[in-house]
């Protein structure tokens, strides 16, 4: 039509404009459909980051809550009972069957890193911080999934390490800062072009993980990762929006292990006091999606007697001896993973709850 009625240059310009307009309409229409579908699938609480209040970046205090003296004493007693049977293999928190011929690879770096971040004033969890040191090969600084894999410098798992193990290591810094470990680990990653283990995608420093890594190292005054280690290589200024990335992961990650990884990003920022409306929204969404997960509820609301009741109901359903195969908070509510609890995840949670202010009643 335009080629017939208008000169070629003008008609081509008009055609280009129309194509751009149609593409824009399709793009914004697709975005609208995406959020509409998310609202249907996720429920009305789905909140894209750019729909949050304009003061979303104003600093807030993470929710602390409080406990009655009775609740405080109850979980203190429960902690003592849990330490009697919580499983250790070769001196580290582990699942049953770890460090055996049948199961030589276990995610001990992950579990012990989280446990190390516990604010416990007792010495009975310090082994978890020691475990992270033991998970490193002294010859090259590489971190492995367990001390025995580090000692052998081999694993039955093709992913010798992963970003979830890396999150465990980052968590551990809130229990003990090991400058030597981090310096040699970062040297290894740098020499291997941004891989935490040779050639595996799960070992790459993707942008969200790089942002968390950079925040944690900066917080503790540790050597920071070069932006060149990020894959794909983006400008580090993207980390100004890292809270929005975390919120998105909380909204869309599958229930279970994937959602728990997003929760660790929330937890790490809570431990740094890096909290605002976006982080609070993310914590609330974790609790909404998995209301029986006491770790998620604590992130959202802080300590409370109702949280203690929920946790104690789960602990009291554990009948020993039992298969000690689960870090409960990693699994979906529907799996009732606490029935196969390793024990240490509840000790970790109790140690945080015991830090809450108490009241007489």
What does this molecule look like?
With 361 residues, this protein is mainly alpha-helical. 51% of the residues lie in helices and 2% in strands. The chain is built from 15 helices and four strands. It has helices at residues 2-5, 8-42, 69-83, 108-116, 126-134, 147-152, 163-172, 179-191, 207-220, 242-252, 257-271, 277-289, 294-301, 305-316, 344-353; strands at residues 67-68, 88-89, 92-93, 358-359. Strand 2 (88-89) and strand 3 (92-93) form a beta hairpin. Helix 4 packs across helix 5 and helix 7 (163-172) packs parallel to helix 11 (257-271). The longest helix is centred in the first third of the chain and has 35 residues, at 8-42. The radius of gyration is 24 Å and the shape is globular. Mean pLDDT is 87; it is low at 1-51.
Secondary structure elements and pairings:
Elements (H helix, E strand, L loop, with lengths): L1 H4 L2 H35 L24 E2 H15 L4 E2 L2 E2 L14 H9 L9 H9 L12 H6 L10 H10 L6 H13 L15 H14 L21 H11 L4 H15 L5 H13 L4 H8 L3 H12 L27 H10 L4 E2 L2
Parallel strand pairs: 1-4
Antiparallel strand pairs: 2-3
Helix pairs in contact: 3-15, 4-5, 4-7, 4-15, 7-11, 10-11, 10-12, 11-12, 12-13
């Amino acid at each position: 039509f335009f080629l017939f009625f208008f000169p070629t240059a003008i008609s081509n310009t008009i055609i280009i404009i129309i194509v751009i307009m149609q593409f824009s309409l399709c793009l914004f229409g697709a975005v609208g459909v995406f959020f509409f579908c998310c609202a249907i699938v996720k429920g009305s609480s789905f909140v894209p980051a750019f729909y949050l209040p304009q003061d979303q970046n104003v600093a807030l205090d993470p929710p602390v809550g409080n406990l009655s003296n009775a609740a405080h004493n109850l979980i203190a007693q429960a902690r003592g009972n849990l330490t009697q049977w919580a499983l250790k293999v070769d001196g580290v928190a582990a699942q049953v069957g770890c460090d055996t011929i049948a199961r030589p690879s276990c995610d001990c770096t992950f579990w012990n890193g989280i446990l190390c971040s516990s604010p416990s004033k007792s010495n009975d969890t310090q082994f978890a911080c020691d475990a992270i040191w033991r998970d490193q090969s002294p010859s090259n600084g590489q971190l492995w999934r367990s001390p025995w894999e580090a000692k052998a410098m081999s694993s039955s798992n093709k992913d010798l390490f992963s970003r979830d193990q890396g999150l465990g290591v980052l968590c551990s810094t809130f229990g003990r800062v090991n400058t030597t470990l981090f310096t040699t680990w970062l040297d290894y990653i740098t020499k291997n072009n941004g891989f935490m283990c040779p050639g595996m995608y799960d070992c790459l420093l993707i942008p969200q993980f790089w942002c968390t890594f950079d925040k944690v190292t900066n917080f503790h005054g540790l050597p920071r990762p070069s932006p060149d280690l990020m894959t794909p290589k983006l400008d580090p200024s993207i980390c100004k929006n890292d809270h929005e990335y975390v919120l998105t992961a909380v909204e869309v990650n599958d229930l279970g292990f994937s959602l728990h990884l997003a929760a660790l990003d929330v937890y790490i920022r809570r431990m740094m006091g890096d909290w605002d409306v976006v982080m609070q929204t993310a914590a609330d969404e974790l609790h909404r999606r998995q209301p029986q997960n006491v770790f998620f509820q604590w992130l959202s609301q802080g300590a409370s007697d109702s949280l203690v009741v929920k946790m104690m109901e789960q602990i009291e359903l554990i009948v020993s001896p039992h298969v000690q195969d689960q870090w409960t908070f990693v699994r979906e509510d529907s799996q009732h993973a606490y029935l196969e609890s390793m024990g240490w995840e509840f000790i970790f949670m109790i140690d945080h709850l015991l830090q809450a202010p108490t009241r007489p009643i």
